[in-house]
Amino acid sequence: MDEDSRGELPAERRRPHPSRLPRNHPMYEEILEAHEEAMRRGDPMYLDPYTGLWVQTARSIWQSRDCCDLGCRHCPFVE
């Protein structure tokens, strides 16, 4: 299945699962803002304002078709 047959990333899959980014994280809003800005630009990654590391966006992971089980913050496949 390619991205076109899967469709666009569902809106409910844009926010990270609480097990990957707890809502009480000290920089929760800033992280979500950085993620959404990267998604608007179409960037596959963004610079995490908390750790300074590069983090893959939910859309980028969605396009990969599957969860890699590496614990990605924005994995849209986490239930």
Q: In percent terms, what proportion of residues is strand?
A: 5-15%
Low-confidence stretches: none
Radius of gyration, Cα only, in angstroms?
12 Å
Quaternary state of this entry equals: single chain
Shape: globular
Number of discrete domains? 1
Q: How confident overall, as mean pLDDT? A: 90
SSE-based structural type: alpha+beta
Strand order in the sheet with the most strands = 1-2
Number of distinct beta strands: 2
Largest β sheet strand count, sense and barrel closure: 2 strands, antiparallel
Helix content: 25-40%
Q: Which H/E pattern describes the elements?
A: HHEEH
Distance between the termini: 20 Å
Q: Specify the number of helices.
A: 3
Structure write-up:
The protein has one domain. It contains three helices and two strands, in the order H-H-E-E-H. The protein has helices at 3-6, 28-41, 58-63, and strands at residues 45-47, 54-56. Strands 1-2 form a two-stranded antiparallel ribbon. It is globular and about 35 Å long. The two termini are 20 Å apart. The model has no long low-confidence stretch (mean pLDDT 90).
Secondary-structure map:
Blueprint: H1 3-6, H2 28-41, E1 45-47, E2 54-56, H3 58-63
Antiparallel strand pairs: 1-2
Essential attributes:
79 residues, alpha+beta, two-stranded antiparallel ribbon, 30% helix, globular
